[in-house]
Amino acid sequence: MSAWTETAEAVFTRRFEPVNITVTAVLGGDGVLVADTRCSVQEGRELRAELTKLTPLPVRWVVNTHTHFDHMWGNAAFDAPHQIPPADFWGHENMPDFDPEDPEFLELRDYILREGGPEWQPKLDELVVRKPDHLVAREHVLDLGGRVAELRHVGRGHTDNDLVVWLPDAAVAISGDLVEQSGPVAFGKDSFPLDWPETLTVLAALTTQDTTYVSGHGDPADRGFLQGQQEFVTSVAQQIKNLHADGVPVERAVEVGSWPYEDASWFDNAVKRGYAQLAGELL
């Protein structure tokens, strides 16, 4: 567990294990905005305790940059009965509903237990998924007291519910997993690899040359890093389009394609999702 770093004036970031999640705390005159809450209620409580060491201000707003478990399963720690009064919870309107009996959730649960080990069992036993009830379509402005936080949906990429927190007074963009600093770009089963390049173009247009981009995992990055990330996702999208146009079957595309990583299997989801879009099966 790292220490809080003041990335900009009254904007603090910190990296937490497991999964090297980056949490951001934005201090306003009326309270604290927390972007992403870690992987479980237990970890959310730990986060809340660490925030009290940073500031006496209450956590009034929780923003989830997207729906993945490592970014929102700690939400309930900022809700009643753990926190009184509870925070307001914000996310994008495309965030799906949570069904504990859904096969995809059960598969995810099994994966977490298998990969994370037995220490995850009590976390999952306690799990309460607190989905945001304040939902943003394109944009919404929060008044934090003396400063504003603009919640922006700049397009699809890592998911269809990616939400950026833009802090114009600090030139900070809390970008979630649209920007990955500590590891390779993650093309998951709900990603939109063909949309991702344009989404980063919109993000660049929203922000400024001196912007700091807080990634969902890793350290804050600069404009040059964003440009490099955009070039990367653009090359992947173009490769998918070329393979599809050449008539390469989806089941062979990963094998025959020219990919920027030696482990081509990393692009399996990107190919499947990209082909589905190009075939009109994924809108």
Features:
single chain, alpha/beta, 8 helices, 32% helix, globular, 283 residues
What can be said about this structure in brief?
With 283 residues, the chain is an alpha/beta fold. The chain has one domain: Ribonuclease Z/Hydroxyacylglutathione hydrolase-like (Metallo-beta-lactamase, Chain A), CATH 3.60.15. The protein has helices at 41-54, 69-72, 103-116, 120-125, 196-206, 223-245, 250-256, 268-278, and strands at residues 5-8, 11-16, 21-28, 31-35, 59-63, 88-92, 134-136, 139-143, 148-152, 164-167, 172-176, 212-215.
Description of the structure:
By secondary structure, this protein is of the alpha/beta class. It has a single domain (5-223), classed as 4-Layer Sandwich (Metallo-beta-lactamase, Chain A), CATH 3.60.15. The chain contains 8 helices and 12 strands. It has helices at residues 41-54, 69-72, 103-116, 120-125, 196-206, 223-245, 250-256, 268-278; strands at residues 5-8, 11-16, 21-28, 31-35, 59-63, 88-92, 134-136, 139-143, 148-152, 164-167, 172-176, 212-215. Helix 5 (196-206) runs antiparallel to helix 6 (223-245) and helix 6 crosses helix 8. It is globular. It starts with a strand and ends in a 5-residue tail after the last helix. The model has no long low-confidence stretch (mean pLDDT 96).
